[in-house]
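Hi everyone,

Forwarding the result from last night's run.
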Amino acid sequence: MPRRDAYEALTREILNLPNLITIGRMFLIPPVIWLIDPTDPVRNFIAAMLFAAASGLDILDGALARRQGLVTVFGKFVDPLADKLMAMSVMVYLVATGLLPAWLVVLMIGRDFYINGLRTVAADRGIVIAAGEGGKLKTVFQLVGICCVLARYSYRMPWTEETVNFHFIGMVFLYVSLALSIVSAVQYTTGFRHALRQQAAD
């Protein structure tokens, strides 16, 4: 009976609206990848809009979860997973199509693996490393940068003759995101070392 209760509780968590939105974001990844085409501005623009919609839904599901008191263990796990799957899968495909340098994506993925490993070691020692503002800001710059790289072409702005090179803007955002990634990784490491020393002193 307790096992059945636990199963029903987990089912309710998965099927609440914020978590369904989060899961839906992951289902948007395949069409985004399918639409990426270095030779077709229309397909790339649609891919960018889909990716932007998936990124925007991240704000919506978090706001709904907090407002309706539906913050769950499943949601805490799957929400950052959806962010990473979205960003990393699209960036890897952009490397394959020649739209992103491989070294940039390797550094970003390596940083995320390092932080996840550090958090696992910290949790094993009873230390909680909270997400800092640098890490959150890095994610914002990363998602905006990917959107712009997906759009990639120069587009003329409405009511003006000026054009905007979205690929250039996207790369600037991604380089800023990389810098923030490195800074936040140093902050996580420093915080972990400080917590270890404090724990040893106690």
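The chain is about 80% helix and 5% strand.

Cheers,
N.
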